[in-house]
Amino acid sequence: METQTNDQTNAEFKYLILVEPLGFLYGSAGRFLSPENLVGLSGSSFPPSAATVSGIFAAHYGNDAIQNLYLAGPFWGKTEEVKSAKQNFYVPTPLTYLVKNGEMRHQLHWDTAKKGWFDEKGEAPTDKFDKGTWIAIANWQKPTKVEKSPWKFSPHLHPKLEENERRVIRQDNGNNREKEGSLFLENAVEMPQDTCLVYLSTHKLEPGWYRFGGEGHLVDITSVEINQKHRQLLSQPIKKQFALITPAVWGSNRLSYRHPIQLQKGNSENDKPEDSESQDTTVWEVETLYTSRAIPFRYRLGDAKNSQPHQPKVLSRGRYAVPAGTVYVLKEGISKPWHNWDESWFPKEGPSLKRWGCGLALPLPTTS
Questions:
Q1: Which residues contact 154 (CB under 8 A, 6 or more apart)?
Q2: So what's the pLDDT on residue 282?
């Protein structure tokens, strides 16, 4: 594995990490699906975030060896296309590209004079449009079609049976209550055999089989060096108009914003009062943005002071992220690509969220 000195940080992506499932994958996050919560796809979350891939790096190389690791994703692709010279894979569609029945119908642009989003005819479409589509990275500048997610959820019940009886094990919880059953629901995910998940990485991961996500599902991972065309796209200055291709958490460690903020000196995360957040200043002069509902985003574990002995860690306070596909229009453009953005723009508790590709953005082609 490549290493860097501690005083040098380079977030420029050099590799594609291809994750090919060897069977089902795990599709839940946040809540635990228990006998009291057997509610179909409740708590479903897929594909896994870049933090899951970071865990594989840490398990394989050790935590000290990955202090300068940066990742971004999730994306997906058709395996042969990703491994070809073209290296085509799919990223979230910018929300200003309006898709109906799988076809791209409109591309909205911001009209500064009228203060609104309009299509090619100067109109504001009011129809309902498709959500959760993807476009080819190879056609980022001139997208012509979209793709839908190729995976399917397949809930699986996991009972633990008695050794000598065909019945679910019943366990005493120790609180003089009725014995509880050992049954839970796993949201398994099935991907077509010719597809794979794709992540961007600054470091190479040795090829092989790894456990990926929950329930110990196995995947085959390979690393491919990013071609020159994609490196040029990722190295372009963001300028005034750009789209996020990964979710973004901006703000402080406690509060989430729609854009980066600059914390005032002395405003530490642990001792400043709630109302002092107003003293902080914004980093970007945002003219407008086109977005949708914020999405839940968890990235850290907290100490379990009152948890059971078999639960040494619990999820700490959740965060909310600006969803991938969000389009920003700034008053003043950003002259640097994402990998050169200041790490102070990203919340930090332990690793900076930039390490996991938070808010990875690509410039959008301008429209008249």
A1: 24, 188, 189, 190
A2: 81
